[in-house]
Amino acid sequence: xxxxxxxxxxxxxxxxxxxxxxxxxxxxxxxxxxxxxxxxxxxxxxxxxxxxxxxxxxxxxxxxxxxxxxxxxxxxxxxxxxxxxxxxxxxxxxxxxxxxxxxxxxxxxxxxxx
Amino acid sequence: xxxxxxxxxxxxxxxxxxxxxxxxxxxxxxxxxxxxxxxxxxxxxxxxxxxxxxxxxxxxxxxxxxxxxxxxxxxxxxxxxxxxxxxxxxxxxxxxxxxxxxxxxxxxxx
Lengths: 114, 110
Fold this sequence. Notes:
The complex is a heterodimer.
Chain A: E1 4-7, E2 10-13, E3 19-25, E4 31-37, E5 43-50, E6 53-57, E7 64-70, E8 73-78, E9 87-94, E10 104-105, E11 109-113
Parallel strand pairs in A: 2-11
Antiparallel strand pairs in A: 1-3, 3-8, 4-5, 4-9, 5-6, 7-8, 9-10, 9-11
Chain B: E1 4-6, E2 11-14, E3 19-25, E4 33-38, E5 44-50, E6 54-57, E7 60-65, E8 70-75, E9 84-91, E10 98-100, E11 104-109
């Protein structure tokens, strides 16, 4: 069983399109995250949800909208895709109040915008 | 000072070598620190946690110097399988997420 699973793993699309990435975790964690890793391999926090409540919203264009239907799922919708959105998007999960240092990451969703 | 800074490398070493990576952090209130490992085209995974002055796990030793706000990772007797990017990680000021350094790339050759 995959602990944190993301779909799709690869996504190639044209500028201006809208796309979504889904994430699910079966670890019973209460907190989920989206991180973006750009072409320079820099891994940067985008959003964090704790029990469906948004707790971190970094400086991210409002074209990016996260949605958490329940604490096991955190999806990311991106409107009007731009070239600079090309990156690997990692979903992760953890327990908020114990051992915040141990994040479990999904395998990543590699987005290429043409 | 940036939140987390690392020497990006790459570090190219032969098998059996000892190699050390350094990391500095800006939040003097941080109580916990972490090293993650990321293989090429894979997700990051936790390698070690550091809560006091240091931690040792087999060939890997992490040390913390709070006065200098400096963390190090020492790898002894390097193996080919140690080739990866090593990420220095600290919690953000609110303790609600992890901030990752840009990583140090290690390449071990035979």
